[in-house]
Every structure is written in structure tokens, then in C-alpha cells.
Amino acid sequence: MLPNVIDIVEQFPLSFNEAAHELGQYSMSHYKKSCDGTSKIAADLGIKHPVLRNGEDVEAWTPTTDLLIVFSIDGACSLLAVADKPTLDIEKQRTKQLLNLEREYWLRRGAEWLLLTPNDYDRRVGLSLSRTAPWVFLKFRATLPQQRACVKIVEALEGESLTRVLSELEQGLKIPMLHAQCVLWQSVWSGITPLDLRCGHRPSEPVHLLPTDEFIALNPLSSRRSAWRNY
């Protein structure tokens, strides 16, 4: 659902010492830039840097960011860093310090940083995405014209059952039912068909579309929703 994404990295390690800007490998405009590492940032914030201990041996711990997303818009690259944490963990003072360390790391790089908790998204949406993922990740890839045709069919059948919608996709696009499932859910996941993902989407249940802004608001990354302001 996020346009202009060129890379996604999970558990991205943060540099301990001053290091090249993370966008240096994507953009020549950042190639020779360097930024502070977590060691200096922790000192600036007046907190202890996280460490690993094994008896008398002590080594600096390398913090990571759960998700780092790289965008390219008209040749200009940017970063969105995302921390995903259980709500209860954030109540701990040390956890807040480490999150602030991570946040400051990315702010010094001109990146956006979001903190997500289970309170920042609707659990029903997560369940719908999990249940429909098999059709999204199949080898079959729906074309853009197929996905655009999908939203028109769903609009025409607003309130009809999922079974009826899929049957119309199968017949209208002249594709097998398995591919009709792929077209529908790949179109939804791409944000082209703004289906209300809070519904259960059993075969007999009606499908409903949302206004685009309401659909985007269900995605904390698209809407840039962050729990950090509450802490």
C-alpha cells in the first residue's frame, strides 16, 4: 500500500560509531555524508549505551530497528524507520531510553521514525491480512489493468457476497477462480481496491468499500501513526 518503495530491511543494525549515511548506497547525494553512531547519541542523551555481559567481558550491544523502508520519489530517496513493540514493554523506563536512542539515531539522519504498538492498528485488519496472504504471495501476479478492473467490479457489487464478487471476477476477466482470488487480494493489498478489512470476508458475507482516506487510516504506516507521542 506504500507507493515508491524500493527496499525494505528487517532488523536493521544501528552503527555504534560515526558511519556513512544509510542512504549512501541508494543515492549519490548521500554518498559522502556521515552521521553520529549510537555511542555518541547515548552520551548526548545522558543514558547508558546497551551492553552484553559475559562474566567480566563486556561488549557494546548493537541495537536494531525492526523495519527500515527506503523510498524513491522523483529520484530523491528517503527513509522510514519503524519500531514495533508490545505496549507493556514501553512502560519500562529503560525501554523508553532505548527507544529514544533509536529515534534520535534516525532523526539525525533526516528519517521519519514511527513507534507501533498493538493499540495503533485494528486487530481485525491484521487477521484479514493474515488470512488473505496466501493469494497475495502466490507466483501469479495480477496486472495493473486487472487490479483496476477489480475495483470497478467490487464497486458495482457493493454489499454482495464475496462469492458473488469472485464469480464476477472469474467471468469478467476470464481467469480461473484461484487467479480471481489473487486479483482481488493483491488489488486490496496494493491499496487499489479499498475494501473494509475489518470485515470477516467469509464467502457468504457482504463486501464493503471504504472511502480512500478511511482505508489509508487503517494502515499506521500509510497514515504515519505513531505511539511515541503518548510516551
Model description:
This protein has helices at 38-45, 87-90, 93-107, 123-136, 144-156, 162-173, 177-189, 212-217; strands at residues 5-13, 19-20, 34-35, 51-54, 57-60, 64-73, 76-84, 112-116. With 231 residues, the protein is of the alpha+beta class. The chain has 2 domains: 5-120, 3-Layer(aba) Sandwich (Trna Endonuclease, Chain: A, domain 1), CATH 3.40.1350.10; 123-217, no CATH class. A hairpin with a 2-residue loop joins strand 4 (51-54) and strand 5 (57-60). Helix 1 (38-45) crosses helix 3 (93-107), helix 4 (123-136) packs across helix 7 and helix 6 crosses helix 7. The longest helix is centred in the middle third of the chain and has 15 residues, at 93-107. The radius of gyration is 22 Å and the shape is elongated. The mean pLDDT is 93.
CATH overall fold name of the largest domain: Trna Endonuclease, Chain: A, domain 1
* N-end to C-end Cα span: 28 Å
Percentage of helical residues? Answer: 25-40%
* CATH architecture level-2 label of the largest domain: 3-Layer(aba) Sandwich
Query: What oligomeric assembly is this protein in?
Result: single chain
Q: Please trace the helix and strand order, writing H or E for each element.
A: EEEHEEEEHHEHHHHH
Percentage of residues in DSSP E strands: 15-25%
Overall outline: elongated
Helix-strand category: alpha+beta
| Main sheet record | 4 strands, mixed
Unreliable stretches: none
Roughly how many Å is the radius of gyration?
22 Å
